[in-house]
Amino acid sequence: MKLTNLLRRAAAPALLAAALVTSPAANAETIVMASTTSTEQSGLFSHLLPAFKQASGVDVKVVAQGTGQALDMARRGDADVLFVHDQVAEEKFVADGYATKRYPVMYNDFVLVGPADDPVGVKGNDIVKALAKLAQDNAPFVSRGDKSGTHAAELRFWKAAQVQDQGKGYKACGCGMGPALNMASSMNAYALTDRGTWLSFKNPGNLAVLVEGDKRLFNQYGVMVVNPAKFPHVKAKQAQQFVDWVTSKAGQDAIAAYKVNGQQLFFPNAGQ
Q1: CA distances from 19 to 13, 23, 24 (A)
Q2: Distance (Å, rounded) from C-alpha 149 to C-alpha 88?
Q3: What is this structure's pTM?
Q4: Angle 118-122-125 (CA atoms, 0-180°, nearest 5)?
Q5: Which residues does the chain have with pLDDT short of 70?
Q6: I want to staple 128 with a disulfide (CB 3.0 to 4.6 A). Which of 20, 47, 161, 233 is the partner?
Q7: Among residues 223, 264, 66, 82, which one has the least CA distance to residue 153?
Q8: Structural domains of the chain, ranges and CATH numbers in brackets
């Protein structure tokens, strides 16, 4: 065998190792995103994040929890970027200096689900009247009770209904949207949920959507880069890459393309 062939064969493993070391996958940056259970449990991130990685080479590790917990995590400097849905709390987060800007990115809506035969008679398009009726009848109702964006919306609706005592049937699970819906399904109870999680929920039992279409049920999502001036270790450059991508045409088209059983779960509205 010629010397040149021997040298090539000997060099091949080293060249392969070098290629692996220098490949984009091996050198990919990883950022931590604190987000809500609705974006994770709806399956949106499984659809969205591979497209972002392909475009940027950046990996995203998602910590899914209630919006309040996600904001607290970022306030401790334990996240690089936030993707949440409680606009009032998000604006306070910016005002307190934990981010320099909030970017609207998409929306869906909340719905009230409950027993398909609706024994309390709340079906319609008025969430405030529906909750007042549920409290009056001591109807079974499962609340997330976890300071999430959904829980914050629920509390606003109870307040608008002037309800201070939700009744004997009210249960707060302190859990994510999926577990709360599982509990409601097993109890044949009412619950407030974002539509995205509901459409991807696999265990509806006898539950059905009863209240929808009320403009107060609008559910806006926002993204924010955690301020590196407060936490110098934050990967602000890569986090901003994600924000720029998800609010760009490519990211917005990817959000619009995500469907479950032919139904679109989230509607892009960056820049609006």
Answers
A1: 10, 6, 10
A2: 10
A3: 0.83
A4: 125
A5: 1-28
A6: 161
A7: 66
A8: 30-108+220-268 (3.40.190.10), 109-217 (3.40.190.10)
